[in-house]
């Protein structure tokens, strides 16, 4: 009987999947951060903007804002691994090693609660040059003819949400800081459409030191929904906001470590003082089936990435997440972190205002309404790696469309908290009285929300 129990323990342990010759990444859960109190100078780990956000909305600076002590990091590194990333909010460190037994040695440390395998394979650096950069640079100017309206080919996606009126009032995202987490932003730094982009900075959490402007253009398309400024061709929903571009998705494989990259990026964005996070990434299925999530975990407090999204919301950040594109698949439901509490989850609809067939549905496992809102997600105008207008579909695009207009709304109603902003949008959307699992509270009316917010303020 003891042998059987031992065999079952091995079979269902993450270590069962380890093989010789591979590199492994383990997420180490610490028992604590060894922080008895806060240092006097919060400026050492939070920017002035981050402190101002907390002060404005009466959010306390807590031990969760403290970094993991260097002594803890050194203790882990001394066991022979390489530190990949860490989370101060969730007290975790990801460590890489070719030695699979390092997990057992680390788990014996007093500062360690548990260890989880989050990646395995061959560690390869990205190619020095992306194939995209070898193309004709003349393609980096839009090839479509100029239209007669300011928004160009993007007009339907902003008109559907009644956002033009808010722009006409002069609210275009000024003074708002938006972090975009994605797989890459190929050629954004070389395109006419982004020439006026207000870029605060970039950071690659997958391959530190490598440029985010090559390798994948999913983020380019997402950013165009927000920040493109090519009048008559395409104008995004928040063209005058300030942007942080953060790479967290490794498109070469699908493993839970991408949650760790995302969480590190969100913590960085918080420290940098962003107001909004636009995330068009979602997880539930991985390359190793035993690592997959199950739908009963869509409770907003179980998945690693969802826990961090909730904490970001508690820090006063408005997290806007795509619902996922699993509506046609066996999973069908929203993906993680779209289940997180107090974030804005966005589904997709067609130009006829019907749910896009691919758009993931709710409810959450604990019966909360998700998605919260919907926007155009079928045949959206976007700008790809070439700088030309394309038409793409996905909640990856409905989410940033709403994120940008929400930035404009927050610019107009700065007294609101992130949670009050979500409630305002829900209360003025097309299905506010009868939310459902497909469209949530429905299509937001940004100008209606603005007027209601103004009345409430008066």
Describe this structure in words.
There is one protein chain. With 458 residues, the protein is an alpha/beta fold. It folds into two domains: 18-121, Alpha-Beta Plaits, CATH 3.30.70; 138-457, Peptidase S8/S53 domain (Rossmann fold), CATH 3.40.50.200. The chain has helices spanning 2-11, 48-56, 70-77, 102-107, 155-159, 164-168, 218-227, 257-272, 304-314, 395-412, 418-427, 446-457, and strands spanning 23-30, 82-87, 92-97, 112-121, 177-182, 198-204, 229-230, 234-235, 242-247, 276-279, 318-322, 344-349, 373-376, 380-383, 389-392. The strands form four sheets. It has a seven-stranded parallel β-sheet with strand order 6-9-5-10-11-12-13, with helices on both faces. Strands 2-3-1-4 form a four-stranded antiparallel β-sheet, with helices on both faces. Strands 7-8 form a two-stranded antiparallel sheet. A hairpin with a 5-residue loop joins strand 14 and strand 15 (389-392). Helix 7 packs parallel to helix 10 and helix 8 (257-272) runs parallel beside helix 9.
Task: Summarize the helices and strands and which ones pair or pack.
Layout lengths: L1 H10 L11 E8 L17 H9 L13 H8 L4 E6 L4 E6 L4 H6 L4 E10 L33 H5 L4 H5 L8 E6 L15 E7 L13 H10 L1 E2 L3 E2 L6 E6 L9 H16 L3 E4 L24 H11 L3 E5 L21 E6 L23 E4 L3 E4 L5 E4 L2 H18 L5 H10 L18 H12 L1
Parallel strand pairs: 5-9, 5-10, 6-9, 10-11, 11-12, 12-13
Antiparallel strand pairs: 1-3, 1-4, 2-3, 7-8, 14-15
């Amino acid at each position: 009987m003891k042998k059987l129990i031992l065999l079952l323990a091995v079979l269902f342990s993450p270590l069962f999947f380890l093989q010789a010759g591979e590199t492994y990444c383990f997420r180490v859960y610490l028992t604590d951060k060894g922080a008895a109190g806060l240092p006097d100078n919060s400026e050492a780990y939070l920017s002035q903007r981050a402190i101002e956000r907390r002060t404005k909305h009466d959010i306390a600076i807590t031990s969760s804002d403290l970094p993991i002590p260097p002594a803890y990091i050194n203790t882990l590194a001394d066991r022979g691994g390489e530190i990949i990333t860490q989370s101060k909010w969730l007290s975790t460190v990801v460590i890489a090693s070719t030695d699979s037994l390092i997990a057992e040695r680390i788990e014996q440390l007093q500062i360690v609660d548990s260890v989880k395998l989050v990646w395995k394979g061959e560690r390869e650096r990205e190619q020095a040059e992306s194939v995209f950069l070898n193309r004709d640079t003349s393609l980096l100017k839009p090839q479509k003819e100029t239209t007669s309206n300011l928004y160009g080919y993007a007009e339907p996606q902003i008109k559907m949400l009644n956002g033009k009126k808010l722009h006409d009032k002069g609210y275009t995202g000024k003074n708002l800081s938006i972090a975009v987490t994605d797989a890459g932003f190929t050629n954004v730094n070389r395109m006419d459409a982004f020439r006026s982009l207000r870029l605060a900075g970039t950071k690659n959490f997958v391959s530190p030191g490598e440029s985010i402007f090559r390798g994948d253009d999913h983020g380019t398309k997402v950013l165009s929904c927000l920040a493109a400024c090519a009048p008559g061709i395409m104008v995004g929903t928040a063209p005058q906001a300030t942007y942080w571009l953060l790479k967290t998705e490794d498109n070469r494989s699908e493993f839970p470590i991408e949650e760790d990259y995302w969480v590190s990026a969100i913590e960085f964005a918080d420290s940098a003082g962003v107001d909004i996070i636009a995330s068009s990434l979602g997880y539930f299925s991985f390359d190793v089936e035993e690592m997959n999530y199950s739908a009963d975990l869509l409770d907003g407090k179980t998945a690693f990435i969802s826990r961090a999204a909730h904490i970001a919301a508690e820090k006063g950040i408005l997290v806007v997440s795509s619902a996922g594109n699993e509506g046609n698949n066996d999973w069908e439901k929203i993906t993680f972190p779209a289940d997180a509490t107090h974030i804005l989850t966005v589904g997709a609809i067609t130009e006829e205002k019907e749910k896009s067939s691919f758009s993931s549905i709710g409810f959450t496992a604990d019966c909360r309404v998700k998605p919260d809102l919907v926007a155009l997600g079928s045949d959206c105008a976007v700008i790809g790696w070439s700088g030309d207008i394309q038409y793409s579909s996905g909640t990856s695009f409905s989410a940033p469309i709403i994120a940008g207009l929400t930035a404009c709304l927050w610019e107009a109603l700065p007294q609101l908290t992130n949670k009050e902003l979500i409630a305002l949008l829900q209360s003025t959307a097309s299905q506010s009285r009868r939310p459902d699992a497909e469209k949530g509270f429905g299509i937001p009316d940004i100008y209606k929300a603005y007027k209601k917010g103004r009345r409430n303020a008066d």
